[in-house]
Amino acid sequence: MEKKTSSSTEVSASAAADAKISSIFIYPIKSCRGISVPHAPLTPTGFRWDRQWLVVNQKGRAYTQRVEPKLALVEVQLPNEAFSEGWEPTKTSYMVIKAPGMDLLKVSLSKPTEIADGVSVWEWSGSALDEGDEASKWFTNYLGKHSRLVRFNAASETRPVDPVYADGHVIMFSDLYPYMLMSQGSLDELNKLLEEPVPINRFRPNILVDGCEPFSEDLWTEIKISQFSFQAVRLCSRCKVPTINQDTAIAGREPNETLMKVRSDKVLRPDKKQQGRIYFGQNLVCKESLTEGKGKMVKVGDPVFVLNKVSSAAEAVA
Q1: Alpha carbon separation from 230 to 9, 156, 157, 175, 180 (Å, rounded)
Q2: pLDDT surpasses 90 at 13
Q3: Residue 161 CB neighbour total at 10 angstroms
């Protein structure tokens, strides 16, 4: 049963926050390392620059850490000003890419003109912008197999989120939804159960919050971050990526083995259809981000107010 924690979606100035943002992460190239930033602009597809690029094979299919764990070691840097409101790249603005044993790769942030057709990621296929032969050679040499770096072409393509869960919302190369939120309390609680604690980068959230009880994000259905309304649309089902050490690109059994014991659908949702899934984190969409506009910025330290929630994880959408 859903509970409203406030009589309306307005939060009184005196209301105590239920949590606050402790970190914001953006992953410009899907499955490569993230960037921790102090603030990030909201756009219709998520935070600006998030999963805007994708490494694909010769058939145009996405490479991810699931099959190419070496992507975990690819470090991505953007200019600090790229996260400022209204900033637009110039001819001298670059994304800088580093990896062990590789020369530095600089990719212009100005949009390329070449088109790559037949690009696919999960259920979606379409055309994308091709970042050219230099980037292709770099990733081909690094992965040891034919690769190209492509950029989402927002001018010609749309990738809708599953309308069953978040009708009208769109993403670029994210897996399923524009934002993924986790709490520090949940990570700390999991680490109490592990012989070797894992860092937050195993789970690749966009928003990390602190100051709330472990796993309270399971229950949230509507929250306000600063003045922006976010809807929690579905618990985040985890794949094998959390088992990949992001500093070595070597996969192990944890934390998924422990998560299966404490965070599986069998444990959290015993009366629901069992699919052998494990859940950690909450997927979000932002109501205000559907339209462009000024002042749409979320920053570290912003308060989080819970407006609506369910009473147990069994009632949450998954």
Answers
A1: 11, 27, 24, 18, 11
A2: no
A3: 21
Pair 208, 23: CB distance under 8 Å: yes
Distance CA 91, CA 185 (A): 43
DSSP bridge partners of 130: 150
- Interval 266-295: pLDDT, tens: 999 999 999 999 999 999 999 887 666 677
Give the chain's end-to-end CA distance (angstroms, integer): 15
Cis peptide before 214 (omega within 30 of 0): no
Q: How many CB atoms lie within 10 A of CB 159?
A: 18
Q: Is 302 exposed, middle or buried (0-12, 13-18, 19+ CB in 10 A)?
A: buried
Residue 132: left if φ>0, alpha if ψ -120 to 50, beta else—which one? Answer: left
Residue 72, classed as helix, strand or coil, is helix
What distance in Å separates the CA atoms of residue 38 and residue 248, rounded to the nearest whole number?
26
Distance, in Å, from the CA atom of 159 to the CA atom of 88, rounded to the nearest integer, reads 23
Whether the full predicted model's pTM is greater than 0.70, yes or no, is yes
Written as one letter, the residue type at 279 is Y
